[in-house]
């Protein structure tokens, strides 16, 4: 039996679920990333798991809200 989760998570048929980020959180995270914040800093600020932040960052990059750069992705590799 699958474990019950508080927030939707994971990948379904190539679609990324948003892990329950509010529009306000997404806006603040986008601004922080544009000002040089790292994934670890975002995880700490929003009390989220690294994976949740990575998915948000990936979504923001795909939407063109932020540009992919080495400083954001360096800590993940």
3D structure, described in words:
This protein is mainly alpha-helical. It is built from four helices and two strands. It has helices at 23-34, 39-46, 50-63, 70-73; strands at 11-12, 15-16. It has a two-stranded antiparallel ribbon with strand order 1-2. Strand 1 and strand 2 (15-16) form a beta hairpin. Helix 2 (39-46) crosses helix 3. It is globular.
What is the strand content? 5-15%
> What is the overall pLDDT average?
76
Residue share in helix: 40-55%
Coarse structural class: mainly alpha
Note the run of SSEs as H and E. EEHHHH
The count of domains is: 1
Task: Give me the side-by-side strand order of the main sheet.
Answer: 1-2
Rg for CA atoms:
13 Å
CATH class division = Mainly Alpha
CATH architecture call: Orthogonal Bundle
- The total count of helices amounts to 4
Tell me about the largest β-sheet. 2 strands, antiparallel
Brief rundown of the structure:
The chain has 77 residues and is mainly alpha-helical.
What descriptive keywords fit this protein?
single chain, 77 residues, mainly alpha, Arc Repressor Mutant, subunit A, two-stranded antiparallel ribbon, 4 helices, globular
List the helices and strands and how they pair.
Layout: E1 11-12, E2 15-16, H1 23-34, H2 39-46, H3 50-63, H4 70-73
Antiparallel strand pairs: 1-2
């Amino acid at each position: 039996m699958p474990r019950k989760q508080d927030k939707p998570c994971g990948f379904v048929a190539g679609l990324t679920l948003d892990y329950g980020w509010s529009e306000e959180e997404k806006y603040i995270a986008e601004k922080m990333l544009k000002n040089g914040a790292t994934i670890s800093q975002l995880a700490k600020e929003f009390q989220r798991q690294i994976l949740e932040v990575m998915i948000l960052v990936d979504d923001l990059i795909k939407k063109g809200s932020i540009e992919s750069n080495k400083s954001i992705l360096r800590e993940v590799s």
